Sequence to fold (278 residues):
Amino acid sequence: MLYHMKTFQSLLFLSLLFTFSCGGDTDQGAMDQGGVEEEEGAELIGTGNPGNEDIQLTDMPPTEGFPNASIDDWSYDGGTFTYEVSGYTFGQITEDADELMCANSDQGQHVHLIIDNEPYIAKYEPTFDEPVQDGEHHILTFLSRSYHESIKTPAAHRAVMVTASNGSFSSEQEITEPMLFYSRPKGTYVGRSQTENVMLDFYPVNAPIGDEYQVKANVNGKEFLIDEWKPYYLENLPMGENTITLTLMQGDSIVDTPLNPVRRTFTLEADPMEESRK
Fold:
């Protein structure tokens, strides 16, 4: 496997100390949804749950390729985003969606729009209205499969630094520094088909994942080091709130770049109908 897990003995000690002193509860007040400033105790999020050691990060099966998918033109004017694409169809269910056993959108293929590393906005048509606050922003947008996996080719994304003013971009230039954008998991997952295999997907920009750059994923306090850019499954996650922190690394050092690291919280819920049939 091209990723490996690092478990620290000190984490176990701190976890036990935290559990006995705080009753196992986790302070969620320190969480945010964008770039994260690490605070004292932040690494303990989720470690009060004894099942966290069972969490696994595994390879997601190979997915349908889109070698010709391309964002040919992309603009924002009058508060409206417009995409011109080729080799890709909005609103179509990706052919291998039923084989993957993970959350899938019944609205089909769509774009993800990420503004300043906030949770992505999914749009299922090539033209849509979306307000962008005046000022400077880092924006990533990419074509997505119906099950929310990014199409990982240069032509299928745009990563830009923009200045927004009155519903338009007054300036726009490509991002040139290494950055990491978080995509999935997001929101609430319900039932076994969505909660048994939860897809982890992220998007590096100017940061080839491998020997030079890596992604550290902290999942409820358990760490994984990823050195290959592809989607993964998170397995054995507990029901309820789960928290992931992704950090772009260069060896042992955190890359000094905007919006790094990034933290998200998402929720897993049992399906009452499934539970009643047990």
Remarks:
- The domain at 3-60+178-276 is CATH 2.60.40.10 (Immunoglobulin-like).
- The helical segments are 9-22, 97-100, 192-195, 272-276.
